[in-house]
Design brief:
three-stranded parallel beta sheet; Rossmann fold; globular; alpha/beta
Length: 105
């Protein structure tokens, strides 16, 4: 947790991606899943600092905002405005088909 600056600074994300793709010839797309506005700001800043890589932000609605439709829609909109390409009710909705659709964006 303390190996890199906190969100929305994307340095920790950059470090993790670098470790995962060690030896790769070209940048891989990154799908970043998060449930806070800070998570989406992180992916937005990553796009700014490394525009040569596809960065996809996926917002997940935390349980406490799913109690009413108003809270759900308000929170979903805040995630979208902060950089989420899509917002899902839970991470299990991020299927292989959904990932393929996101990569076509």
């Amino acid at each position: 947790m303390e190996d890199a600056p906190g969100k929305p600074d994307p340095q920790g994300l950059f470090d993790a991606v670098q470790q995962l793709e060690a030896g790769a010839n070209q940048p891989s797309p990154v799908i970043y899943v998060g449930d806070t506005v800070a998570d989406m700001y992180t992916i937005d800043r990553a796009r700014e600092k490394q525009p040569d890589r596809p960065w996809v932000g996926v917002g997940i609605l935390p349980p406490h905002v799913q109690e009413t439709s108003d809270r759900r829609s308000t929170y979903a909109e805040s995630l979208r405005q902060a950089g989420a390409e899509i917002v899902l009710a839970n991470v299990q909705e991020l299927t292989a088909i959904k990932i393929q659709q996101l990569m076509k964006i």
